[in-house]
Amino acid sequence: MSFYIQSVEIGGPRPFYLLGPCSLECESFVWEMARSIKAIAENLDVPLIFKASYDKANRTSVTSFRGPGVQEGCRILSEIGRELKLPVVTDVHTAQEAEIAAEYVDLLQVPAFLCRQTDLLEACAKSGRPVNIKKGQFLAPWDTVNIGEKMRAFGCDEFMMCERGTTFGYNNLVVDMRSLYWMKQEGFPVVFDATHAVQKPGGLGGTTGGDSELAPVLASAAMATGSIDGVFMEVHKDPSKALSDGPNQIPLHLLEGVLKRLQSIHQAVQS
């Protein structure tokens, strides 16, 4: 199964990349990140979908930064997409948000904790937009079959499944690379989320920890399986100052090297 989001082919012979900061911290920041990431992607001829979240609705602490909200966040993303000629994606958390966001963005994303919420899946499926569905940390890879059946029942064939790790004990995630193969065998495009896979949920007490240095390692391993169609990586110009998920984001200055490495691995696998 393959389809297009603007000029980016999903499920085709080339891997695509969902890149951008975790949250839409402010308008000037997200514009800066979009321009910087686009320049790197164009230099490497990497198919890019730009990502940022307007609301981090499942933060560990009630005092944590969340974002500007659906209306303002989607307005900013829409303007970025239009001016920079980039497809854009953001998370949605309710059926109502899916309807609003679909008017502004090119791809809707269902968060992992909400991947089985039937009303949300139905709203995304009927929005007319393709959908990236994060596999819940609590699901086996073959459980995504039921999610796919829901999407098809609601009339949507343009969706993909995204692996982001599985809960392993307390405050820890692991990635079973076999899951990428098993999900690919079900016939839908598969994305690997390299940065959320290295999270340590709640690992810092009031915030989430992570091992960002391992994100490129896991991305490389995922690419080497030959089973993924895309890579999701959150990128920040200074992760130490990020308002969410700093410990697992890729520093912007390292992004080009990471992408080159992934391109080389993909070429080796294809040959």
TrEMBL record:
Reactions it catalyzes: D-arabinose 5-phosphate + phosphoenolpyruvate + H2O = 3-deoxy-alpha-D-manno-2-octulosonate-8-phosphate + phosphate
What processes does the entry annotate via GO biological process terms?
lipopolysaccharide biosynthetic process
- What keywords are annotated for this sequence in UniProt? Cytoplasm, Transferase
Q: Does the keyword Zinc apply?
A: no
Please give the Gene3D superfamilies that the UniProt record associates with this protein. Aldolase class I
Q: Which domain of life is it from?
A: Bacteria
Q: In which pathway does it act?
A: Carbohydrate biosynthesis; 3-deoxy-D-manno-octulosonate biosynthesis; 3-deoxy-D-manno-octulosonate from D-ribulose 5-phosphate: step 2/3; Bacterial outer membrane biogenesis; lipopolysaccharide biosynthesis
Q: Where in the cell is it found?
A: Cytoplasm
Q: Name one GO cellular component term.
A: cytoplasm
List, in alphabetical order, the Gene Ontology terms for molecular function in this entry. 3-deoxy-8-phosphooctulonate synthase activity
Q: What is its EC number?
A: 2.5.1.55
- The DAHP synthetase I/KDSA domain extends over 8-269
Question: Which InterPro entries does the entry link to?
Answer: Aldolase_TIM (IPR013785), DAHP1/KDSA (IPR006218), KDO8P_synthase (IPR006269)
Q: Which family does it belong to?
A: Belongs to the KdsA family.
The entry's protein name is 3-deoxy-8-phosphooctulonate synthase
